[in-house]
């Protein structure tokens, strides 16, 4: 792995692109620099070229590490972030638990009738790990650590790992029930922030984590060490997939002289050079066409309550659903996935109303249809001329800001 204690996005970058972080500047996050603003080949674009759907999921905010922009630039079809998930359970530190991912992964796979590449980032195990006693009745009790604060931190961490193990088992069972040819790759992005030193580890190497490959197609079991930037090329090789410029490079050159030196040249040519590697056929990634979420929220009814408050009824609401009246965001109370309440707003005849899935920095990711309100009756309004496609609002705004 390229980092320890933090840097999830850099491990993601290596896995998805096949590029190595060793050829970037110290402390650089490509998600915040190059990949945020320019298109880039990835496992998603490579597999889309073979007819796969490409889905991304994360049970944290869509803007975190600029993932919405990055996944769009990498060629994904949809990105389901926490703004689209009905998250009911969180860790004591407030991170969404990973059990919410299983039904959302299944839903993403159902967006196409064919094969899918689904890239999922979990957040349940995210640090920091409290030194005070947090778990009243932990399933796993840690002993043998003299310092109480350190023991509490490890106990909290290992119970998170236990919960993530259960998520992995639930995902395998859900995939088995679909009875579709499937390969699952689980990997750890980095070791935790626990003041670890090399001498504390059996491997003596702080940058090693475990990965597991599960399949139902009879692949031969193989153990071995592999860098994060090599893992997709390895999986592709085992599936007889030869797609993607950098992945093909790994497959053909991994055991040859000047492998790393030439990888550095290839990365430079693709990102900062003249792209000689694309001279004959052109770059396979021209422009992103990703949508946020895979389904719309829906407004079915607006009811005025006895205390002069309003309830909005519908479908697919989440805690990140916000009501807009005449284009202005309202203070919105989330009751459940079918009801939102307005306790401080006033609706008058002729007002327009809609619900948006809103991320950090007030980014609108996706909206319901807009309705005109009149004495409790809703009339659907025609979309504005030149309005962006629903689910692509954030990317149109981003593009317009670049062009100013």
User: Based on CA inertia axes, which overall geometry fits?
Assistant: globular
> How far is the N terminus from the C terminus?
39 Å
Query: Nearest-angstrom radius of gyration?
Result: 23 Å
Q: Can you tell me the CATH topology of the largest domain?
A: Alkaline Phosphatase, subunit A
Element-level helix/strand string: HHHEHEHEHEEHHHEEEEEEEEEEEH
Please characterize this protein's 3D structure.
The chain has about 400 residues and is an alpha+beta fold. It folds into two domains: about 10-280, Alkaline Phosphatase, subunit A (3-Layer(aba) Sandwich), CATH 3.40.720.10; about 295-404, Immunoglobulin-like (Sandwich). Helices cover about 25% and strands about 20% of the residues. The chain has helices spanning about 10-15, 35, 45-50, 65-75, 100-110, 150-180, 230-240, 245-255, 260-270, 395-404; strands at about 55-60, 80, 115-120, 185, 210-215, 290, 300-305, 310-315, 320-325, 330, 335, 340, 350-360, 365, 370-375, 375-380. The strands form four sheets. Strands 9, 10, 13, 14, 15 and 16 form a six-stranded antiparallel beta sheet that branches. Strand 7 (about 300-305) and strand 8 (about 310-315) form a beta hairpin. Helix 7 (about 230-240) crosses helix 8 and helix 8 runs antiparallel to helix 9. The mean pLDDT is about 90. This is Sulfatase N-terminal domain-containing protein. Keywords: Cell membrane, Membrane, Transmembrane, Transmembrane helix. It comes from [Ruminococcus] torques CAG:61. It is a multi-pass membrane protein. Pathway: Cell wall biogenesis; lipoteichoic acid biosynthesis.
């Amino acid at each position: 792995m390229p980092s320890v204690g933090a840097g999830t996005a850099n491990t993601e970058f290596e896995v998805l692109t096949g590029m190595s972080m060793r050829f970037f500047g110290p402390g650089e996050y490509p998600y915040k620099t190059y990949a945020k603003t320019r298109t880039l080949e990835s496992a998603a674009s490579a597999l889309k070229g073979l007819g796969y759907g490409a889905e991304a999921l994360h049970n944290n905010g869509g803007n975190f590490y600029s993932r919405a922009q990055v996944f769009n630039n990498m060629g994904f079809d949809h990105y389901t972030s926490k703004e689209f998930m009905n998250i009911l359970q969180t860790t004591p530190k407030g991170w969404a638990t990973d059990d919410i991912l299983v039904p959302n992964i299944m839903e993403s796979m159902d967006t196409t009738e064919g094969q899918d590449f689904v890239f999922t980032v979990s957040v349940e195990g995210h640090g920091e790990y409290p030194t005070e006693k947090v778990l009243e009745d932990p399933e796993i009790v840690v002993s043998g650590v003299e310092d109480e604060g350190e023991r509490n931190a490890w106990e909290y961490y290992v119970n998170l790992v236990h919960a993530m193990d259960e998520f992995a088992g639930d995902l395998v069972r859900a995939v088995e029930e679909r009875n579709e040819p499937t390969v699952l790759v689980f990997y750890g992005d980095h070791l935790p922030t626990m003041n670890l030193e090399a001498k504390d580890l059996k491997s003596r190497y702080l940058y090693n984590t475990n990965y597991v490959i599960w399949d139902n197609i009879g692949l031969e079991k193989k153990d071995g060490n592999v860098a994060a930037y090599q893992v997709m090329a390895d999986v592709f090789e085992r599936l007889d997939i030869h797609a993607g410029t950098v992945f093909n490079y790994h497959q053909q050159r991994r055991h040859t002289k000047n492998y790393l030196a030439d990888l550095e040249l290839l990365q430079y040519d693709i990102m900062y050079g003249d792209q000689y590697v694309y001279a004959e056929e052109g770059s396979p990634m021209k422009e992103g066409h990703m949508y946020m979420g895979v389904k719309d929220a829906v407004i079915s009814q607006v009811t005025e309550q006895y205390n002069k408050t309003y309830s909005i009824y519908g479908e697919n609401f989440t805690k990140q659903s916000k009501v807009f009246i005449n284009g202005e965001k309202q203070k919105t109370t989330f009751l459940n996935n079918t009801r939102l309440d307005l306790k401080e707003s006033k609706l008058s005849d002729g007002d327009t109303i809609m619900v948006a899935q809103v991320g950090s920095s007030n980014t609108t990711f996706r909206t319901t249809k807009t309705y005109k309100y009149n004495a409790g009756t809703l009339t659907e309004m025609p979309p504005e001329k030149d309005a962006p496609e629903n689910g692509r609002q954030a990317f149109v705004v981003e593009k317009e800001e670049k062009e100013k």
